[in-house]
Design brief:
With 404 residues, this protein is α/β, with parallel strands linked by helices. The chain has two domains: 189 residues, 3-Layer(bba) Sandwich (FAD/NAD(P)-binding domain), CATH 3.50.50.100; 143 residues, FAD/NAD(P)-binding domain, CATH 3.50.50.60. The protein has nine helices and 22 strands. Strands 5-2-1-9-19 form a five-stranded parallel sheet, covered by helices on one side. It has a four-stranded parallel sheet with strand order 13-12-11-17, with helices on one face.
Length: 404
C-alpha cells in the first residue's frame, strides 16, 4: 500500500525532498504532493543580483507544476491555513489533505516589525528576503544612482541570514565605482555580529580578517555588536551610536516561523520554528518532519546582541535528503542515516568572490575551515546559478558539492 506524503513549501527544502523521495520511492510506493502558496521556485541566492539590476525574477525562477509533474509528484498551488498533527491533516484555502508523512519546508516569515520603519512596503527601510523586496530594492538603487547619498547596509538583532547583507554592500560599492559615483556615497555596514564574518556560526577560519580588510580597502565603515532600532527616510538609528545618515537603508530582518505552523498547536516553539531530531523528525508529532529555515536551531553561542544560527540553501538540501531518506526507510520498516550539517558558501564581493567551507557548521570542527578569495569564485557562483537552474527546471537532482 502506498504511503501518502505531503510537502509544504516549494523552495529548496520542498523541491529537494520531493525529488529525493521520488528517487527512492516509485509512484506505486508513495503518493507525493507538494503544496505551495507560490507557483514558482525562486533561486534565492540570486536576489542580491536582482537588487543590483543584473538579473530579473524571470531569469532566476520557474513554474513548479510542470517540473514536478515530470517526477510524478502532485502540485497544489494552495495556502496552508492549519495543520492538525493528531488527525494528520493539512487544511488549505482549497482543500483538506490527509498524510502519513508531512514535511514542513515552509521557509520563514520576515519579522520586519522587529525594527520600526523596516519596510519596504510599510516603511522606508529595504530588505532582500523575497522576490518582491528585491525588485523594490532595485528601484531604490536606481534612484540612488540619479540622486546619490549615504547608505546603511546591515542586519537587525536576531538575524540569521547575514550573508546577503555583505553581498549587497560589496556589490553596491562595485556598482558605484563603475558609475564613478562612489566618492559621493558613504556606505556604513552595521551588524549584530560580535565580529565580522561570525554569520551566526561562530566564524570560520580567517573569514573575519578577510572581511575586515575587504571593507577597509573599499572605505566601507563598519560597526559590530550593534542593534538597529529604527529606520527613517533620512537615517538609521543604532543603539549606543545614534542616527547614521542614510537615504537608502537595506537591513536584513530577524526571521520567524510562518503563521500556519506557528498557530497550529503542538508543532512549533514560541518563534514558530519546528523542533526536530537528527532525522529532522518532530520529537512528538508522529510522521511530521521539518527542513530548512522552518527548523528550530539554537545559536552557537550567546552574543551581546543576538545572532541566530544560519540556514543556507546548501544546508537545507542536506536536511531534505536526510528527511527523505528516513521517510523512505520508515515506509519499508527501517530508519535512515543521519549526518552533521556542513556548509559550502560562495559570496559575491563585486569584483571577486569568496569560497568558504566548514564541517560541521557548529564549532568545534573536525576540519580547519577553508576560506579562499579570488575572481574564480565569482565566476563559480555565476556558473553554479546556471547549473542549478538548468537541472532543477528539468526535474533533476542538482549536484551541490560546491554549495552557495
Amino acid at each position: 500500500m502506498a504511503v501518502n506524503v505531503v510537502i509544504i513549501g516549494g523552495s529548496f527544502g520542498g523541491l529537494t525532498t520531493a525529488y529525493e523521495l521520488r528517487r527512492r520511492l516509485g509512484p506505486d510506493k508513495a503518493s507525493v504532493t507538494l503544496v505551495s502558496k507560490d507557483p514558482r521556485f525562486v533561486f534565492v541566492p540570486s536576489l542580491p543580483w536582482v537588487a543590483m539590476g543584473s538579473r530579473t525574477m524571470g531569469q532566476i525562477s520557474f513554474d513548479l507544476g510542470p517540473v514536478l509533474a515530470r517526477k510524478q509528484v502532485g502540485f497544489a498551488h494552495e495556502t496552508v491555513l492549519h495543520i492538525d498533527h493528531e488527525a494528520k491533516t493539512v487544511t488549505t484555502d482549497k482543500a483538506e489533505r490527509r498524510y502519513d508523512f508531512l514535511v514542513i519546508a515552509t521557509g520563514h516569515r520576515s519579522a520586519n516589525e522587529a525594527v520600526e520603519g523596516l519596510g519596504p512596503f510599510d516603511g522606508p527601510g529595504h530588505s532582500l528576503m523575497s522576490g518582491p523586496e528585491a525588485e523594490e530594492l532595485a528601484g531604490a538603487v536606481q534612484r540612488l544612482l540619479v540622486d546619490p547619498g549615504p547608505v546603511v547596509v546591515g542586519a537587525a538583532p536576531g538575524a540569521s541570514c547575514i550573508g546577503p547583507a555583505y553581498e549587497f554592500a560589496f556589490e553596491l560599492d562595485h556598482l558605484l565605482r563603475r558609475r564613478r559615483l562612489r566618492h559621493v556615497v558613504a556606505i556604513t555596514f552595521v551588524t549584530p555580529e560580535p565580529f565580522l564574518g561570525h554569520m551566526g556560526m561562530g566564524g570560520a577560519g580567517n573569514i573575519r580578517q578577510l572581511l575586515e580588510a575587504a571593507l577597509e580597502e573599499r572605505d566601507i565603515a563598519y560597526a559590530t555588536s550593534k542593534a538597529v532600532t529604527r529606520i527613517t527616510g533620512g537615517s538609521v538609528e543604532v543603539e549606543g551610536t545614534g542616527p547614521v545618515p542614510s537615504v537608502l537603508s537595506m537591513v536584513i530582518p530577524p526571521l520567524a516561523g510562518v503563521e500556519a505552523v506557528a498557530q497550529s498547536p503542538g508543532l512549533s516553539n514560541p518563534k514558530g520554528f519546528v523542533p526536530v531530531d537528527a532525522h529532522y523528525r518532530h520529537p512528538e508529532a508522529e510522521g511530521v518532519y521539518a527542513v530548512g529555515v522552518a527548523v528550530a536551531m539554537a545559536p552557537v553561542s550567546q552574543a551581546p546582541v543576538p545572532v541566530n544560527f544560519p540556514k543556507t540553501g546548501h544546508m537545507t538540501e542536506q536536511m531534505a535528503r536526510t528527511a527523505a531518506a528516513d521517510i523512505a526507510a520508515r515506509a519499508a520498516g527501517g530508519e535512515g542515516k543521519t549526518a552533521e550539517l556542513s556548509a559550502h558558501c560562495l559570496m559575491d564581493m563585486g569584483d571577486r568572490g569568496v569560497h568558504m567551507a566548514v564541517h560541521p557548521v557548529r564549532p568545534p570542527r573536525n576540519k580547519i575551515p577553508h576560506v579562499s578569495e579570488g575572481r574564480r569564485w565569482l565566476l563559480a557562483k555565476r556558473a553554479f546559478e546556471r547549473l542549478y537552474l538548468f537541472h532543477a527546471r528539468r526535474g533533476r537532482r542538482v549536484p551541490t558539492a560546491l554549495g552557495w
